[in-house]
Structure formats: structure tokens, C-alpha cells
Amino acid sequence: MLGSGIVLGCDYNPEQWSADVWQEDVRLMRQAGVDLVAINIFGWSYLEPRPGEYDFAGLDRVVELLHEHDIKINLGTGTSSPPPWLTTLHPEILPTAADGTTRYPGGRQAWCPSSPIFRRRALALVEQVARRYGEHPAVVLWHVSNELGCHNAHCYDEETAEAFRRWLRKRYGTVDALNDGWGTSFWSQRYGDWSEVGLPRQALSARNPGQQLDFHRFSSDELLDYYRDEVEVLRRHSTVPITTNFMVTAHIRNLDYWTWAPEMDVVANDHYLDHRLAAPTAELAFAADLTRGLAGGQPWILMEQSVGAVSWQPHNLAKAPGEMTRNSLTHVARGADAVCFFQWRASAQGAEKFHSALIPHAGTDTEAWREVLTLSATLDRLDEVAGTTVEADVAVLFSWQSWWSCDGESRPSHSVRYLDQVHRAYQALRDLGVTADVLAPPRTWTGTGWSSCPACT
Ligand code: GAL
Fold first, then answer.
1. Which of 149, 254, 378, 388 measures 20 to 30 Å from 268, CA to CA?
2. Given this model, what pLDDT does residue 444 score?
3. Which residue numbers delimit the Beta-galactosidase trimerisation domain (predicted)?
4. Which residue among 270, 319, 345, 356 has the greatest number of ligand 1 atoms within 8 angstroms of its CB, and so is best to mutate?
């Protein structure tokens, strides 16, 4: 897929460190047998420090350093988080929450997917990056943005409302068809004109379920459209495969990846054990099987996982000795041909300074680092597994649209949740030692009829 054998990789955020640390980093990457490094994931403020003023000196050096050490590059387009100058110049790109309040910069991904200004500025950066590195021999993969929709999938501003109406017009054709689809005769919700149709903003009671479901579909489509725009720029300058990192996981459900997957040159997923669940490793197995389903049974990339604790759950558990290796091999056994981590070196500052990394704060004389070296050697011994596929006689059907719909505001019982039910069916098979594929339902309801689903054929 990305070379021979099972690939070991990581996110690398060298902007945090001085150039002498970079030298030490590449030396240790070689020692650990790192094959693939994702860079420029959050590079925007570094590459374009002022509007329209680009500075590639730092990224050039990192690219060359990796290349000299024969390490391949998974190059981020750098657009995931807008730099402070952009949100200062154009606060209108900031996300609006369902209650009409603004979500401010200071974290990451503070942009609204339907913002034309954001898109124009982001695509201008992609153009620069693609032109500069599109034919560089070390670049073997493009990494569009980062976890699209992780924080900003749903935006409730007026620009989004306009885009939603355009999407609805395409879907329904007439206001009457929309009224029929959404059942607006109930509770006096009948629309007389497109201009009256809005977003499912926070309301006093349960909102119209048809409106909510369509808003989910629209929001997923809107980000996919954004992805396509970045791809279009990249393709003009490069023939290297393009992907973005999915979040097939229990706690994020904003994108219908069955519609996204066919547009990826290779499917990539980020997976973190979620200790809020009763059976975190069972969920890992399910997510890996589902990612294989998205990849159409072909090999896929585990783009991120953690070496030890994350820093964004209420209780961030360290991994027991061997646990990281076992989880990595679970992904490989379920079809991953690349095992990558967030991130290379633990941050000394910033929002993720308590997150584990391949090089922990305590350095390389640690059990954590020794386990990384062991994993690397183990993956090398498994090289012949690369390119092989998983055989399963049983399939569990899974659909994001069903998830959105079943977990709506008004329902028979809030104790019955879609994903729990899917997990239970999957768990029963797992208990029996039965390997299952996880596939899309063969057909989906469009509101006006059944259509076949491209991802399941
Ligand atoms: C992912 C993200 C990474 C990092 C990681 C921490 O969601 O893509 O940038 O934040 O989580 O677990």
C-alpha cells in the first residue's frame, strides 16, 4: 500500500521544537524503524504567519531531513486550524452553536464548514503546499486537514442556513415535498416558502426529527464537499494518493463515512481506546472491522492511536505493559497495513502536554520506548501479512444514518441506544470467536424512495 510490509508511523509536530531536537528525532525514528511520518497537520500559522505571506523554510528543512533519512512523508495540507490572524480578520468564519452563541478560537478547528471565506483561504494554502511538495519523492500520501468534523461538524449560522436550503432544494425539489418528508402538518410546522426553512437550532421542545436527520446528512455532505475541494487542488499538482483520517469510534458520529469512503484513495482511521465504555477493546475490534468495511475489504491505515494515556477523557488510563502492542496487532489482524501514532514526541506545552507519545517525557530509557522498539520488530516480522485480506462469513450491518435517526430526541427509551445494540450483536459473535465484517445496509431510504448505497456494492 505505502511500500512493502506493515508500516510503522506517527504524527510529528516539529514546530514545537528547535532544529537540534529535529536531528535527534530523525536519528531515533531510524532506531525505531519509523517508516511514515505525518507532518504539517497543524501547520497553518507557521507557514502563513501573516495573510498571504508564506514561509516554507522550516517545513523545507523537516521534509529534507526526513528524506535524507529515508523516512516517507504523509503530508498534511495544514488547513485543520485557522491561524489567529484569520479569525481576527474574519470572525464570521467562527462556528455558531445551536443556541446561537459563537465558538471562539483558542482551541482548534474553529471554522464553520459552510464559510466561503474559510474555504478560499484554506484552498490558497493547499495550493502553495501542493505546488511546493506535490512531486517531492519523499511524499507518499496526502493528509487532507485533520479529523474533519471532529469539533465543528455542525454549524448554525446564517451562511450554513443558506447552504442547507440549497441542499434541501436539491433533495426535495419543492417545498411541498419537504413538508411531506418532514411531516410538518403536525405542530403547525408547514412551510409556505424555502426562505422559511431554517436550521434545527435550539428550541423549546423536541425538534422536527426529519429536519434534524437532514441536517446531519447535509452537514456530512458539506464537509465531504470541502474535502473534494482540497483534493481538486492537490490533484492539479500531484499524483500521490490522498486521504483524510476518519474517526470511526463510539463517541463521534457526525459523518456518514459510507458516503465518504469511496472518495478516499486509501481509507485511514484514528482510534483511541475509550475507557468510558464497558468494553473498550471490544469497541476497538468493532471499529477496526468497520474500517475494513469502509475500505471495501482492502488494507487500510491506522492513522492514529496512543502509546499510553490520552488527555481528553475524564480519566486517562495508562496502558498496561504489552497493551499497546496487543491493540496494534488487533488492528493489523483486522486489516490495517499501517500502525501509526499520535504523536512522535510528547509535548512540553500546549493542550496535549499530558498525552502519551512514542518518546515519552521521561525519554528513551523507559519501558514505553522499549515497547515501541519491540512493536517495530514485531511488525517487521509480520511484513508478509501486508496486502492480505480478512475472510469473514458473517456480517453485521451498520449505518450512521440509522444511528442519527434512532438516537433522536423523542424515542421509546433513552436507555436503548443504537450503537449499544450494534455492539451487542457484534459482541455475541465475538464471544463465539466468529470474525465479522461490518457493512453498510444494502439500500438507504432517501425520503422519496430506496436508493442503492455505493459503498456496499
Ligand atoms: C486526535 C487528533 C490528534 C490528537 C489526538 C489525541 O483526535 O487528530 O491531533 O489530538 O486526537 O488523542
1. 378
2. 57
3. 392-446
4. 270
* Residue 225, ligand 1, Cβ within 6 A: no
Binding site membership of 42 for ligand 1 (Cβ less than 6 Å): no
Reported as a single tens digit per residue, the pLDDT across 269-290 is 999 999 999 999 999 999 999 9
Q: What is the CATH number of domain 7-388?
A: 3.20.20.80
Q: Which atom number of ligand 1 is nearest to the Cα of residue 311? A: 12
128-150 burial, b at 16+ Cβ within 10 Å, e below that, comes to bbbebbbebebbbbbbbbbbbbb
- Is residue 96 within 6 Å of ligand 1 at its C-beta? no
Atom of ligand 1 nearest to the CA of 146: 8
Let me know: does 427 contact 282? Beta carbons within 8 Å: yes
Q: Which of 48, 159, 230, 304 is catalytic?
A: 304
Position 2 scores a pLDDT of: 73
304 is catalytic: yes
Q: Is 283 a residue of the active site? A: no
pLDDT (tens digit per residue) in 85-136:
999 999 999 999 999 999 999 999 999 999 999 999 999 999 999 999 999 9
CATH 3.20.20.80 domain span(s) along the chain: 7-388
Alpha carbon of residue 243 to chain centroid = 10
- Cell numbers of 389, please? 485480506
Q: Which stretches of the chain drop beneath a pLDDT of 70? A: 1, 443-457
| Environment class of 281 (CB within 10 Å of its CB; exposed 0-12, middle 13-18, buried 19+) | middle
Residue 303 beta carbon below 6 angstroms from any ligand 1 atom: no
Answer for the pair 68, 56: CB distance below 8 angstroms, yes or no: no
